[in-house]
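Question (not urgent): is this output format expected?
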Amino acid sequence: MSQSTKPTATDTSWSGPPRIRWVPSSLAALAGVMVAGMLAISISRWWTDTSYRPALFGLPDTGQLTSIGLPLAQFVHELAGIAVVGALFLNCLLGSPRSRPAGDHLLAMATRWAWVWAASTSLWIVFTVSDLTGAEVLTLPAHGESVMIVFGSSRVLAEVLTFWVALAVALFGARLAPRRWSVISLLPVTLAMLPSALTGHASHHASPVVASLALGVHVAASAIWVGGLLVLTVHLRLFPEDIRRSVTRFSRAALLCVTAIGFSGVLEAAVTLDSWTGLWHSHRGHLIVAKAAVLAGLVLIGYVHRRNTMAPAYIGRLIPLLRLATVELALMGATIGIAVVLSTTP
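Got this back:
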C-alpha cells in the first residue's frame, strides 16, 4: 500500500494543516463508491421505469439534462455531506494530543468536501427548480415568475438551507481545530442532511410525524456510519497509528448506527407503505427490499470485521481492514444510489 512521507501522527512537533496527498488505494476506494452509486441509480431508475421519456406534444418537458442531472447531483450532494459529517465525527474520536496532525488533515478534507457539497447542492437546486417548473434548465430565465414561486416551496428552501451550512463549513471549517469546536459543529452539520429528506415523501403520509422522525434518525445514523467509514478508509490511510487508535471506538459507534438504521428503516417502511404487500407489489417496496438486502450484506461484512480484521488492526496490521472496508464502501455507495431514486419514487 502506498503511503505518504509526511510526519507521522506521533510527531507532536508538527503543526498546521497538512498538504493534501492522495494514495492510489484511497482513490480506488473513492472511485468504487462513485461507480457503485451511479450504477445503482441507473439500475434503480430502469427497474422503476423512471428514466427520461420525452413528454407528449404540448406538455411540459424538463428535458434529458434535468432527468439525468437531478439524481446525479443529489448523489454527489449526499456523498459530500456524508463525508463532511464523517470527517468531523472522526476528528471528535481522535482525542489524543498525538493525533493533532491527523485531526488537522481531517479538517482540511472536511473543508474540501464542503466545497463539493455546496457546489453539488447548487446544481441540485437548479435541477429541482427545473423539475418543479417543468422547464428545461437552459430555459429557466424565461420562466422567471414560475421560478420565483418554486423557490418559495419547502423542498427548495430546505435545499437552500443545506447549501448555506455547506458553504459555512467550506469557509470556516479550517478554524474548527480545537476538538470542542468539531464536537459543537457536528450536530448542525448532521442536521443539515435532514431538511431535504424531511420535505420529501415522509411528509406526505398518514403519519408524517412518525415517518419524518424515523427518516431523520435513518439519515443521521447513515451519515455518521457511512461518512466515518469513508473518511477512515480514504483519508486516514496517511495516519496508520490514528486508524489503529480510533478503529475500536468507531466500531462501537458503527454498531449503534446500524441498529438505529435497521429499526428506523422498518418503522419508516411500515408508515410509508400502504401494507406490507407493497414490498412486493410496488416500485417503492422493491427499492426498500433492495436497500434491506444491501444493509444485510453490510452487517455481514461488519461481522467479518469483528472476527478477522479488528484484532490485526489493533496491533498495526491494517491492510485486511482497509481492503474489506473498500468493498464495504462500494456497497454503501450502492445504498446511497438506491436511496436517491427511492426519494422520488411514489
